[in-house]
Amino acid sequence: MDSFSDIFNNHVLVVALIACFTAQGLKAIIELVRHRKLNLRVMVETGGMPSAHSALVTALACGMGQTLGWSSPIFAATAVFSVIVMYDAAGVRQAAGKQAKVLNQIIDELFQEKPEIREDRLKELLGHTPFQVIAGSILGAMISCLAAPAY
Fold this sequence. Notes:
Elements: H1 11-35, H2 52-68, H3 73-90, H4 92-110, H5 130-146
Helix pairs in contact: 1-2, 1-5, 2-3, 2-5, 3-4
C-alpha cells in the first residue's frame, strides 16, 4: 500500500462503511419518530433498529460478490463471517442484555435499603431482535446494490 489514503480507494470497504453509518443515522431518526426527541447517543450505542453490524457485514459480503464473483472463495468467507456476526448480534449479545436486565433488577432490590452501597448498572441494550438484524441486512444489501456501478 503506497499510502494510507489508498484505503479510501477500496470501494467495497467504503460502501460497507456507508451502510454502517447509514444504519446508525437511521437509529437516530427512528428514535426521533418514536419518542419525539432527538437522541444522538443511539448513533454510537449498540443495539437498536436497524442493526449496523448487519448492514456492514452484508454490504461487505455483497460487495465482494459483486466485485470478485458470487462463486469466489472470498465471497464465501465474507458470507459465512456475516452470518456469524448476525447470529451473535441476535443471539448471544441479546441474551447477555437480558441477563444484564435481570442482574440490574436484583441489584436494585438487594441494595434498595442500603443507599451507601451503589453499584453501576449493567448495559442492557447489547444485542438485536431478529427483525432488527434482518432490517440491517436488507439495508446493507440495498446500499451495496445501489453502489454497484462504483465497483
